[in-house]
Amino acid sequence: MVSAGALAAFLREALEAAGFDDAGFEAAQLMRIAGAPDARLDARAPVPQEAAESAKALLRRRLAHEPLQYLAGEWDFWDFSLRVGPGVLIPRADTELCAMLAAQKARAAGPGARVADLCAGSGAIALGVALHTDAKVTAVELSGEAWRYLEENNRLYGSPLTLVRADVLRWNETLADGAFDVIVSNPPYVTEREYAALAPELFAEPKMALVAGQQGLAFYRHIAPGYARALAAGGWLVFEIGETQAGDVTALCRAAGYRDVAVHRDLAGQCRCVCARRP
């Protein structure tokens, strides 16, 4: 029977040889998913044959660039976990800033603030706001594959969200004036050229959740003016953006009549979010 240390070394070396960054972390995650003992706690611990075979099967899938998050079936976001898999965008630490800013704006709006998350995906931002405020949060998603995970994650946390299956590029037409105090979105914003150069793992994620037309700005160009009427006076629009899009998105917000337009940087120092207030 193989030891945890030997299995961890085998996985790490295979990942390193294939050029994976942080192979040690990935090897430990594959062992965790397979149900093998943690080699960092006891390298001599025996690994049951079934767990060892499972870890090797997971390794083969990872070497084929299946995302680690999909292999795990869930991933941490902020201080909670989300179910994820093929068909839904993987929640990333970069997006935590967007969720935190939306929660901050919701709290400032007062008890029972009304929040809409456009392009909700797995529900990361919407649940982040709902679990950290008393806001009434609506999550809007079009993709049928992503919708399955949105429903599952909502149930997992006691169904605090109102779910709407709709096209964000049209849903604003159905809304009353001043329907929300905060509108937040992490929309598709990758250009076709950028998409072609992405890491192989990203091709496993849904293209419709990543790529947008008009040089990645299509959703911002629609949401900023199109949803302004749906914001209450003094309400906030919160966007996640690509690291080169701050100038374009702030200009779009100002052109649509928003005030107090501000860019927020993530922990890596990259421009990551834009906040704008309806007068």
How does the SSE layout of this entry go?
Elements: H1 4-17, H2 23-34, H3 49-63, H4 68-72, E1 74-77, E2 80-83, H5 93-109, E3 114-118, H6 124-132, E4 136-141, H7 144-156, E5 161-165, H8 168-171, E6 180-185, H9 192-196, H10 213-216, H11 218-226, E7 231-240, H12 246-255, E8 259-265, E9 271-277
Parallel strand pairs: 3-4, 3-6, 4-5, 6-7
Antiparallel strand pairs: 1-2, 7-9, 8-9
Helix pairs in contact: 1-2, 1-3, 2-3, 5-6, 11-12
Q: Residue ranges: pLDDT <50 for 5 or more in a row?
A: none
What is the CA-based Rg, rounded?
21 Å
| Total of helices | 12
Task: Calculate the mean pLDDT score and round it.
Answer: 96
| Residues in helices, as a percent range | 40-55%
Q: What distance separates the N and C termini?
A: 68 Å
Supply the helix-strand structural class: alpha/beta
Q: In sequence order, what are the helices and strands, one letter per element?
A: HHHHEEHEHEHEHEHHHEHEE
Strand order of the largest sheet: 5-4-3-6-7-9-8
Oligomer: single chain
Q: Outline, from the CA principal axes?
A: elongated
* Number of beta-strand segments: 9
Largest beta sheet, briefly? 7 strands, mixed
Strand content: 15-25%
Brief sketch in words of this structure:
With about 280 residues, the protein is α/β, with parallel strands linked by helices. It has twelve helices and nine strands. The termini are far apart.
How would you characterize the overall build of this protein?
There is one protein chain. The protein is 42% helix and 19% strand. With 279 residues, the chain is of the alpha/beta class. A 7-stranded mixed β-sheet has the order 5-4-3-6-7-9-8, sandwiched between helices. Strands 1-2 form a two-stranded antiparallel sheet. Helix 1 runs parallel beside helix 3 (49-63), helix 5 packs across helix 6 (124-132) and helix 11 (218-226) packs parallel to helix 12.
